[in-house]
Amino acid sequence: MSSLSHQIEWSTLARASAGTDVLGHHLPPWWSHVLDQLRQEPFAFKYAWLVGHLNATYTGHVKFTVTRAGILEESLQVLSQLPRHQLCSFTSIALRGEVALDAGGVAREWYTLLSNAILDTSNGLFMVSNKDDQSFFINPNSERDHGPNHLADFQAIGRLLGKAIIDEQVLPFHFCVPLFKMLLGYPISIEDIRYLDPTVYSSLTYIRDCDDV
């Protein structure tokens, strides 16, 4: 397992620093007041505010060149090695051997192809947690099914999610509720099991609520 793999861990909200940005810069005190007001607004307003702020803040571009055949391995490697100061740059994509001007279409295709490869269960990174809504959860056997660099690749996927926000790309998949709660540092309860295995959830709640068990 690479040294990068040992640096990844879940952090609770209490341990996470909300006073710095992704580059490690300290945020000014007035940011807390702005965010406190923003949290009262509807989602559409929050999203419009975020997009406007990103467009006004980030103007640089970072260019990736990958092949279609190796889009998963090559893209995750590039994302893993991307310097921190380029994480908040807009993304420009070139597919090796193909002539195309990336006016947005190539980047959209790259996000779609890479997302499909990441979620392909044969690659061992994610699993379908609920067939009804086709939501995904981390494969608990990812080290066995994907390989010893699975944690480094999960970190690269996290960077992909962040870049998708900056690039205003809608990714073609949904994470299940428990995974979102883990990412946000919210506690997991027995009620969250319903999103992972409805049958197990029903059995557990029956045992919990039945006095005769």
UniProtKB/TrEMBL annotation:
<dbReference type="InterPro" id="IPR035983">
    <property type="entry name" value="Hect_E3_ubiquitin_ligase"/>
</dbReference>
<dbReference type="InterPro" id="IPR000569">
    <property type="entry name" value="HECT_dom"/>
</dbReference>
<dbReference type="GO" id="GO:0006511">
    <property type="term" value="P:ubiquitin-dependent protein catabolic process"/>
</dbReference>
<protein>
    <recommendedName>
        <fullName>HECT-type E3 ubiquitin transferase</fullName>
        <ecNumber>2.3.2.26</ecNumber>
    </recommendedName>
</protein>
<dbReference type="InterPro" id="IPR050409">
    <property type="entry name" value="E3_ubiq-protein_ligase"/>
</dbReference>
<dbReference type="GO" id="GO:0016567">
    <property type="term" value="P:protein ubiquitination"/>
</dbReference>
<comment type="pathway">
    <text>Protein modification; protein ubiquitination.</text>
</comment>
<dbReference type="GO" id="GO:0005737">
    <property type="term" value="C:cytoplasm"/>
</dbReference>
<dbReference type="Pfam" id="PF00632">
    <property type="entry name" value="HECT"/>
</dbReference>
<keyword id="KW-0808">Transferase</keyword>
<dbReference type="GO" id="GO:0061630">
    <property type="term" value="F:ubiquitin protein ligase activity"/>
</dbReference>
<feature type="domain" description="HECT">
    <location>
        <begin position="93"/>
        <end position="213"/>
    </location>
</feature>
<keyword id="KW-0833">Ubl conjugation pathway</keyword>
